[in-house]
Design goal:
The longest helix is centred in the first third of the chain and has 14 residues. It contains eleven helices and 20 strands. It folds into two domains: 180 residues, Cytidine Deaminase, domain 2 (3-Layer(aba) Sandwich), CATH 3.40.140.10; 203 residues, 3-Layer(aba) Sandwich (Dihydrofolate Reductase, subunit A). With 431 residues, it is α/β, with parallel strands linked by helices.
Length: 431
């Protein structure tokens, strides 16, 4: 359909606002909203900041006040029609006297869906599907979780230009620069869980914690992603791409609201695994640590078992172990674990997003089972020639079966390059 210029521009702004919520809204989606008064001027803006806090529509309506009556609301996700920790947004829009609602993506969750129908019944004109791909991209983690019933997976690796993640003697610290490593911690902090395999635990004894330093980009932009303002221009929606509104760092929205002019509220809520979301951007929650350890070989003194963050050890359901840790027993799949079952179990614990780290064996298993939704690669301008590859056996026996991806972003990070890519749907691949 042909999208009116003003609809595209306002929805592009809503998508950009939604991106501010990355890393703090789980298990809720990221959502942005722009309210335009009857004369076509922006009256209010908002985004969802933390689960249990006001939804994007409520924030934008509060800012708009009486100017919302007879106006239009642009929302990246269909307004909810149920009462949970907050009331239904469909009712808030009706009570405010909104005349028209423009929605990017229909809500796939049975519990919250139905807002569009409620609005139409109440006499509100509803337009669906405006900048749908852009809104899906900014909310991809939650949409995977809601549609497929499993956690969304981002696989990260660091390598030399010739694809080596470690030298021939096994040393791997440090292939990439301090800037790249700092960026990784931003990605970790934005995820609900960090996953690694037992091989990584035995060889490197990592902590698997998120330790993000202050991001100078946030300070410079008062809590806004560097490209957030682009969508505010009148013609921004014309070329809105699937990644419109994506922040330059995955949790750039943590400080959102600090000087942004939005009344985003504050507060915190406890996660089901014991972490905490800081609603005002002042704190950083501890993502769940998950070790994929089929035979239960995690050493009792491993750093991943310290008290810096909660930990689950995923083991085969037929082994006997006296490991003193939280165990997640899963069925076997080939010579490892059923990773689809792992992601379903994590989703049941409200883990929306997984950040996959560790070695080539586990990465290959995720790819073989069709469970890598996004790839983040850090490439250093260096060559090793031999040593450990970044990716192990991934179910590719011939060139025609290789996993093809498409690039979303190519960015310099210090002296290194960060590549963000995602798999292209291919017939015969598991989804």
């Amino acid at each position: 359909m042909e999208i009116p210029e003003q609809d595209a521009a306002h929805m592009a702004r809503a998508v950009a606002l939604a991106g501010h919520g990355h890393g703090t809204t789980s298990p809720n989606p990221v959502v942005g909203c722009v309210v335009v008064d009857a004369g076509g001027a922006v009256a209010g803006e908002g985004f969802h900041v933390y689960a249990g806090g006001p939804h994007a529509e409520v924030v934008a309506l509060a800012q708009a006040g009486e100017r919302a009556k007879g106006g239009t609301a642009y929302v990246t996700l269909e307004p909810c029609d149920h009462t949970g920790r907050t009331g239904p947004c469909s009712r808030a829009l009706l009570d405010a006297g909104i005349a028209r609602v423009v929605v990017a993506v229909a809500d796939p969750s049975p519990k919250a869906a139905g807002g569009a129908a409620r609005l139409r019944t109440g006499g509100v004109a509803v337009t669906m599907g405006v900048l749908e791909s852009a809104a899906e991209r900014v909310n991809e983690e939650w949409l995977t979780y809601a549609r497929l019933g499993r956690s969304h997976v981002t696989w990260k690796f660091a390598a030399t230009l010739d694809g080596r993640s470690a030298a021939e003697d096994g040393t791997s610290q440090w292939i990439t620069s301090p800037e790249a490593r700092a960026d990784v911690h931003l990605w970790r902090a934005a995820a609900d869980a960090i996953v690694a395999g037992i091989g990584t635990v035995l060889s490197d004894d990592p902590r698997l914690t998120a330790r993000p330093a202050a991001d100078p980009r946030l300070a410079a932009n008062a809590g806004s992603p560097p490209n957030a303002g682009r969508a505010a221009s009148p013609d921004a929606g014309r070329a809105a791409s699937p990644d419109a509104g994506r922040a330059a760092s995955p949790n750039a929205g943590r400080a959102a609201g600090a000087g942004s002019g939005l009344d985003v509220g504050s507060g915190a809520h406890a996660d089901s695994w014991g972490g905490a979301h800081a609603g005002d951007g002042a704190g950083v929650r501890a993502p769940l640590r998950v070790v994929v350890d089929t035979e239960g070989r995690t050493p009792p003194d491993a750093k991943v078992l310290d008290d810096a963050a909660p930990t689950l050890i995923a083991v085969a359901d037929d082994i006997t172990t006296d490991l003193k840790a939280g165990l997640l027993r899963l069925p076997r799949h080939g010579d490892g674990l059923d990773l689809q079952a792992l992601l379903r179990e994590l989703a049941a614990r409200e883990v929306v997003s997984v950040f996959l780290e560790g070695g080539p064996t586990l990465a290959g298993a995720f790819l073989r089972q069709g469970l890598a939704d996004r790839v983040v690669a850090y490439l250093a301008p260096a060559l090793l020639g031999s040593g450990r590859s970044a990716l192990g056996a991934a179910g590719v026996g011939t060139i025609g079966h290789m996993h093809r991806l498409t690039f979303d972003e190519i960015s310099p990070i210090g002296p290194d390059v960060r590549l963000i890519a995602r798999p292209i749907a291919q017939p015969g691949r598991e989804q």
